[in-house]
C-alpha cells in the first residue's frame, strides 16, 4: 500500500512521529514544572510513559526523515513487524497512563475538591499535561493502526 498516508518513510509518517514527540515532550515539561507531581503515582507513571513515547517516536521520526532524504522504502515485513509491536506497546502504555492521570485530575477537581481546598496544588498544570498525553496517545494510536494495516496487507 504505497499510497497510505502515515506509512513509514513518508511525510505523513514523519508528521505523526513529530507530533507524538512534541506532545509527549510537552506533557513531560508541564508535569515536570508542576509542584509535587512526584507524590502521585499516576503522574509519575504518566511521565515515565511519555518518556518512553518520546524516545520511541523521536527515533522513528529520525528514521522517517532519513528515509525521505535518501528515498528509502521502509515497508518490509520485518521492519513493519517491529514498528507494529513498538507502536502498540507505546500506545497501550500511554493510554493507560493518560487515563489514570485523567482519573486523578477529575478526582482532585470534582470529587474531593482538592483544588479548592489546597490552592497551592497546580491542578491546571496537571490537567494540561494530561491533555497533552491524550493528544500524544491519539497520534500514537493512529500510527499503530496504520502499521497494523500495512502489515496485514502483506
Describe this structure in words.
With 154 residues, the chain is mainly alpha-helical. It has one domain. It has helices at 11-32, 41-70, 77-111, 114-117, 123-153. Helix 1 (11-32) runs antiparallel to helix 2, helix 2 (41-70) crosses helix 5 and helix 3 runs antiparallel to helix 5. The longest helix has 35 residues, at 77-111. The relative contact order is 0.21. The mean pLDDT is 94.
The best one-word shape is elongated
Into how many domains do the coordinates divide? 1
- Structural class by secondary-structure content: mainly alpha
Q: Which H/E pattern describes the elements?
A: HHHHH
Major sheet summary line: none
Give the low-confidence spans.
none
Based on CA atoms alone, the radius of gyration comes out at 17 Å
Distance between the termini: 9 Å
On the 0 to 100 scale, the average pLDDT is 94
Counted by DSSP, the helix tally is 5
Quickly describe the structure.
The chain has 154 residues and is mainly α. It has 5 helices and no strands. It has helices at residues 11-32, 41-70, 77-111, 114-117, 123-153.
Amino acid at each position: 500500500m504505497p499510497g497510505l498516508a502515515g506509512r513509514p518513510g513518508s511525510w505523513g509518517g514523519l508528521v505523526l512521529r513529530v507530533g507524538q514527540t512534541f506532545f509527549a515532550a510537552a506533557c513531560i515539561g508541564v508535569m515536570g514544572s508542576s509542584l509535587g507531581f512526584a507524590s502521585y503515582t499516576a503522574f509519575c507513571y504518566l511521565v515515565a510513559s511519555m518518556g518512553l513515547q518520546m524516545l520511541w517516536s523521536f527515533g522513528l521520526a529520525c528514521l522517517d526523515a532519513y528515509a525521505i532524504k535518501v528515498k528509502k522504502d521502509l515497508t518490509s515485513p520485518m521492519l513493519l513487524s517491529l514498528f507494529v509491536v513498538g507502536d502498540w506497546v507505546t500506545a497501550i502504555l500511554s493510554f493507560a497512563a493518560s487515563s489514570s492521570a485523567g482519573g486523578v485530575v477529575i478526582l482532585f477537581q470534582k470529587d474531593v475538591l482538592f483544588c479548592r481546598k489546597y490552592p497551592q496544588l497546580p491542578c491546571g498544570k496537571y490537567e494540561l499535561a494530561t491533555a497533552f498525553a491524550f493528544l500524544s496517545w491519539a497520534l500514537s494510536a493512529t500510527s499503530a493502526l496504520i502499521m497494523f494495516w500495512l502489515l496485514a496487507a502483506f
